[in-house]
Every structure is written in structure tokens, then in C-alpha cells.
Write a structure and sequence with these properties.
It is built from 22 helices and four strands. It is mostly helical. The protein has a two-stranded antiparallel ribbon. The chain has a two-stranded antiparallel sheet with strand order 3-4. Helix 16 crosses helix 18. Belongs to the mitochondrial carrier (TC 2.A.29) family.
């Protein structure tokens, strides 16, 4: 299947997306006709193979696998049960099924009508091809016929509304939007046919959603830990700070409550794009690695890999950290200057430019990039390792966003202890030349040597307690907010269920 990006976003794409807005507000009080209810009940009974009035896990798996959906994914089954299973008995009865599908019936019907351009009541391969082109996807007639064949139960060469319903109501709720439904259909048709390019199904809006989620997560977490961030910076950059109590006292003297948050605006301006870039680059690089592996393994006749190695996660994390720092490093320099007190953001910028020129915004750049690359590489790799351990000791169950936050916080604490020397060197390089901070270091290496020879090796961990108090909750909050947002938006589509788990991770009852 080939994919091509069109030069401009077609107006007809908006007509497909406008289904989302109104139906977000839909409620369980929505009514359906007796004929529609009878149809839905027939779909329910077709899945309920033993006719006991409940859709159990084995039955759901069978129905999912027939449609090319990830029936062997514990996370996928768990998400289906979460949206259906009101009494938490591990199955779905008719009333639970009806309660959910009635809420989604309007969006299903209106999405189907958008695909059914001639209003015939069924979707042909030609109509599907046109709809996919509206989503910047160029597909062949054979590709569209395969997608139609996936849902075409009566073998008439077209998709009816009932056949469309069978597919959509087995999707997780976050994917029941017009664009996500179409991409799920593309992914499923490729998956069931064994096409190795299946991992490239990415809606054009998802990169933006990842950037937005990362930015929101970064700002929310840093606002909560701003006082610890300033204390940490002062400890590392100013060797005259000798205790946390004394440092906190000086911060309070520098403006009361506002003094605790001095430099936070610069931090927010830096963290929002940096976190957004880091998550977006990391996800993009790991996706590219998976596609590359799938292509190579397909050519070699080997089964496609579903997971990256720890070294690949480490490399992707290093690239993400370096990319975020390269873009936002001037903000980091200004934040360090403001954290030492006495100047506003504008005054700091003017002072740095007047004293050192534009190059002054990049003092300590090498150490900063190294620190960010190493810390992010280790952070992402250790986080992925933590997820693996979690699944191993929880019978293959994937952690919730809150649990992912805890795992990320623990991983960040371990990483922080390892990269603290790079942080100290970067802070010293950034502030030298400022009033009260004479120029002492000519290079990153010379700075590190003098710190060890004059202050001892332990100086590299100055402010480490502040770092741990700040970093663990900050990273935990970033990961929690990010995962919660992308999960609610359906970012990653079906792909996230296909590449995160191995069959051996699944519990015995699956």
C-alpha cells in the first residue's frame, strides 16, 4: 500500500472530521429504532457463540481476530471491557453492550454516510478509495478491495451499515472517531493479509497531537515543582549555597512567594517545546525503527518484530533529548540566570546579549546536549525496561497512565544520579561572566577537572537532594499527563496494541 502527502489539506477532509464535535456530547438517553436495536442484538448474538447471553474473552478474541484486530493483546481486551463491562464480571452482557453502542450509534451512522458518497446505503471499494485520498492516503484498487473484503460478510463486494457496525463496535472508544475508524480499517486489512508495511498507518494529525500532549504535560509538571527547580539550579551554579534551608531562605528574600517561582516563566517557555519535541522525536524514531525492521525481516522471510531492544530505545531517547535541547537551549541559559535572582526575563536576555553576544546564550551547550542526550536516552530505556518488568510480574497487563507515571518517576531518579555531573558543569559554564561569577573555565573538560581538583568529586552531586525531590514527581507527572492525553485522543491507533506486547506476556486465561 502506498501513501502520499498532498500539497494542501483538502476541504473534504474537514467534512469527514466534523462528525466528532457534536457527538462528543452524546448521552445514554439517545434513542434508537426497534429495527436498529434488533440489528444490534443480532450482532451481539453472532459474537456470543455459546448463547449464554454474555460476550466472554474467548468469544471477543475470535471476533477480533476475524476482523484483523489485535485479539491477542491483553491491553486491547482490557480497553474493550473497560468501556462495556459495567459490573466488572469480566464479560459483556446485552444491556452493557446496548448501553455503549447506543451512545456511539450516531457517530457510526454519520461516519458511514460520509463514506457512502452516492447515498446507496453501502460503501464500494471506489468510494473507500476516494475517502482515503481525503485523508492523504493514496491507495490502489486492490488495497480498497481488500478492505471491503475484510468487512463484507455477504460477499456482495460492498460494506453495508450493519457490516460497518460490527467492526466499529469492537474498537476501543478512543478510536471511534471518523479518522481513527478509517485508519483502523486500513491497519486491520493489512494485518490480516500479512502486509509488512502495516506499521506506517499514521493519521496526519497525530504528530501534532503528540507535540501538543508533550507540551501540556511538560508545563503542568514543571509548574508544580518550580520551587525545587530553582533551588536545584542555585545549588549547582552557586558554590556559596551550603544548605537547603539557607537556599530556601534566600529564595524567599528574593520576593516571597514570587521568589520561589523566579525563572519559572523561562522554564515554562523552555519546557513546553522541549518536552513536546522529545516525545514526538522519540515516538517518530521508534516507529521508523519498527518499519525498518519489518521491511528487512519481510525481505528475509522472517516474522516481523513487535518490540525494540533496550539499545534501540536508548538510541531513540538520546536523539530525542539532543533534539529538544538544541532547539530550546537559549531558554535554559536564561532560566539559569533568572534562578540566581535579581533580574527579570527581559533584563537577563539583554544582559547576556550585551555582555557575551548571541554566543552567550549557548555557553555550556556541549555539556547541556550531552546531559540531555544521556539522561533522556537512559530515561526512555529504563522506562521501557520498567514497563517490561511490570508486565512480567502482572501477567502481561499493561500499566495505567498513573502507574506509568510512577514507573517513569523511579526511572528518572536512577538516571538523575548518573547524569548529575553533566548538569553541574553545564550550570557553571552558563553563569560564569555574570556579576559575582568570574570566568574560570575555558571548556567543558577544564570545568570538570577544576571542580574535582578544587571542590572534590562530591561537588558533582551538589543539590542532588533538590534534584531528586524535583525530578521524580516532575517526570512522573509528565508521563502521567502525556499518557492520559494520548490515550484519550486515540493516538497510536491499533499500532500501539500490536507492538507493545508479546504473546508470551499474556495471562493463561487468554
Amino acid at each position: 500500500m502506498a501513501f502520499s502527502s498532498w500539497g494542501s489539506r483538502p476541504d473534504s477532509l474537514a467534512s469527514l472530521e466534523d462528525v466528532d464535535v457534536e457527538d462528543v456530547k452524546e448521552g445514554v438517553s439517545q434513542r434508537i429504532s426497534p429495527a436498529t436495536e434488533e440489528t444490534l442484538q443480532q450482532i451481539f448474538q453472532d459474537i456470543d457463540r455459546d448463547h449464554n447471553g454474555k460476550l466472554e474473552v474467548v468469544e471477543l478474541q475470535e471476533a477480533l481476530n476475524k476482523l484483523g484486530l489485535p485479539g491477542n493483546s491483553h491491553a486491547y481486551i482490557a480497553d474493550l471491557l473497560k468501556q462495556y463491562d459495567r459490573n466488572h464480571d469480566g464479560s459483556i452482557d446485552w444491556e452493557e453492550y446496548k448501553r455503549y453502542v447506543i451512545r456511539k450509534e450516531r457517530i457510526v451512522q454519520r461516519t458511514f454516510q460520509k463514506l457512502d458518497e452516492d447515498g446507496s446505503g453501502s460503501v464500494s471499494a471506489e468510494e473507500l478509495t476516494k475517502s482515503l485520498r481525503k485523508l492523504w492516503m493514496s491507495v490502489s484498487g486492490e488495497d480498497s478491495e481488500r478492505m471491503v473484503g475484510l468487512l463484507d460478510i455477504d460477499n456482495n463486494g460492498q460494506i453495508s451499515l450493519d457490516e460497518f457496525r460490527r467492526f466499529v463496535y469492537l474498537l476501543p472508544e478512543s478510536l471511534v472517531t471518523p479518522t481513527n475508524i478509517v485508519y483502523a480499517l486500513v491497519d486491520s486489512s493489512d494485518w490480516i493479509e500479512g502486509v509488512e508495511l502495516r506499521l506506517c498507518m499514521t493519521p496526519p494529525k497525530q504528530p501534532f497531537q503528540r507535540l501538543l500532549a508533550g507540551g501540556i504535560a511538560g508545563m503542568a509538571s514543571r509548574a508544580a515543582v518550580a520551587p525545587f527547580e530553582r533551588m536545584r539550579t542555585m545549588y549547582m551554579a552557586d558554590r556559596t549555597q551550603t544548605s537547603m534551608a539557607g537556599c530556601a531562605h534566600n529564595m524567599w528574600k528574593d520576593g516571597g512567594v514570587q521568589g520561589l517561582f523566579k525563572g519559572n516563566m523561562a522554564t515554562m517557555m523552555k519546557v513546553a517545546p522541549q518536552t513536546a519535541i522529545q516525545f514526538a522525536v522519540y515516538d517518530t524514531v521508534t516507529d521508523a525503527m519498527l518499519r525498518s525492521m519489518a521491511s528487512v525481516e519481510s525481505a528475509s522471510g522472517l516474522p516481523a518484530s513487535k518490540q525494540l531492544s533496550k539499545w534501540q530505545h536508548l538510541l531513540a531517547g538520546c536523539m530525542a533529548g539532543a533534539a529538544g535541547t538544541v532547539v530550546t537551549y537559549p531558554m535554559e541559559t536564561l532560566r539559569t540566570h533568572m534562578a540566581l535572582g535579581g533580574q527579570t526575563y527581559r533584563e537577563c536576555l539583554a544582559d547576556v546579549l550585551r555582555t557575551h553576544g548571541r554566543r552567550g546564550l549557548y555557553k555550556g551547550f556541549t555539556s547541556g546536549v550531552m546531559s540531555s542526550a544521556v539522561s533522556n536516552g537512559l530515561g526512555f530505556a529504563s522506562y521501557e525496561t520498567g514497563l517490561s518488568f511490570y508486565r512480567r510480574f502482572n501477567e502481561g497487563v499493561s500499566p495505567s497512565p498513573a502507574e506509568r507515571g510512577v514507573i517513569a518517576g523511579v526511572a528518572a531518579t536512577l538516571v538523575m544520579a548518573a547524569i548529575q555531573p553533566f548538569e553541574v558543569i553545564m550550570r557553571r559554564m552558563q553563569v560564569q561572566g555574570r556579576e559575582g561569577f568570574p570566568v574560570k573555565y575555558t571548556s567543558v573538560g577544564q570545568c570538570g577537572y577544576r571542580i574535582v581538583s578544587e571542590e572534590g568529586l562530591g561537588s558533582f552531586w551538589r543539590g542532588s537532594m533538590c534534584s531528586f525531590m524535583k525530578v521524580a514527581p516532575s517526570i512522573a507527572a509528565v508521563r502521567f499527563v502525556y499518557e492520559a492525553l494520548i490515550q484519550s485522543w486515540g493516538v497510536g491507533g491499533l499500532r500501539k496494541y500490536r507492538v507493545r506486547e508479546k504473546p508470551s506476556d499474556l495471562p493463561p486465561w487468554m
